[in-house]
Write a structure and sequence with these properties.
It is built from nine helices and nine strands. The chain has about 240 residues and is of the alpha/beta class. It has a single domain, classed as Rossmann fold, CATH 3.40.50.150. Strands 3-2-1-4-5-9-8 form a seven-stranded mixed beta sheet, with helices on both faces. The chain is globular and about 50 Å long. The two termini are about 25 Å apart. The model has no long low-confidence stretch (mean pLDDT about 95). Bound molecules: S-adenosylmethionine.
């Protein structure tokens, strides 16, 4: 993900520009801190106070110069208009959040409004076109058959959540003035990896990441990735 975001930044903004980034549903703040370390000014918006504490603790471990570039706010991504003025950001990240939002169009329109012209909306969503892959690769044939005709699924935490189809989000992004410019697959080969599983040795990890990166930008592989990374640009 980080490499894909960096690629988009390199393609769309002058080298060295300090960008204003809003990370909606930032969780423990992995991307927010990474972008702050790269020199950008980052605002994290997170609705779960426990997660916010985790992100605050991580931020407290950073040098003062980086801490000064990060603001963490408790709030709901559906209410960005209550916190920020329209056009206040160059980049809005919304990664791993749409699954939890039952009707996301209004939230997405709000996120697009937060962008300055030319700004990047980066969405990471569960791929609703490939929900049969996970049960199918597990040999759960009933689950695979049921998954073809729905965008609802139960995630690994046991929560009932939802996925998004590429065609649906492409239409939504056009409608909210941030048409899709690029998209990637994420986790083409490694969706079966459990959270907390030990990482492979460094040289193998490098090869794994290279294979994932290549598949994530190549047809037909990216179309069956577990996650889709969609990049819309504000007109
Ligand atoms: C799966 S985590 C993803 C965290 C991070 N963005 C990442 O990619 O690693 C989803 C996060 O979104 C937050 N979240 C879910 N719905 C939200 C909403 N409506 N507004 C703000 N945060 C939300 C959750 O509390 C959680 O921290």
């Amino acid at each position: 993900m980080g490499r894909q975001v960096d690629e988009q930044i390199a393609q769309r903004f002058p080298v060295g520009q300090r960008l204003r980034v809003l990370d909606v549903g930032m969780g423990q703040g992995t991307q927010a801190l990474r972008l702050a370390r790269a020199g950008h000014k980052v605002t994290g918006l997170e609705k779960d106070p426990g997660m916010l504490d985790v992100a605050r603790a991580a931020l407290a471990g950073e040098p003062a110069g980086i801490q000064d570039r990060v603001e963490l706010i408790e709030g709901d991504g559906r209410e960005t208009g209550a916190h920020f003025l329209p056009g206040s950001f160059d980049i809005v990240l919304c990664h791993g959040v749409l699954m939890y939002v039952p009707e996301p169009d209004a939230m997405l329109a709000g996120l697009a409004r937060m962008l300055a012209p030319g700004g990047l909306l980066s969405l990471l969503v569960r791929n609703g076109d490939a929900l049969a892959m996970r049960p199918g690769l597990d040999g759960d044939w009933s689950g695979a058959l049921a998954a073809f005709d729905t965008t609802d699924y139960t995630n690994r935490l046991g929560l009932d959540v939802r996925a998004d189809r590429l065609s649906g989000l492409t239409a939504t992004l056009s409608g909210i003035g941030a048409p899709l410019q690029s998209w990637y697959g994420v986790r083409v080969f490694t969706d079966g990896t459990e959270a907390g599983e030990q990482l492979p040795p460094e040289d193998e990890l490098e090869r794994l990441l290279a294979a994932e990166e290549r598949a994530g930008r190549s047809d037909p592989y990216r179309g069956v990735a577990a996650l889709l990374h969609l990049c819309g640009v504000r007109g």
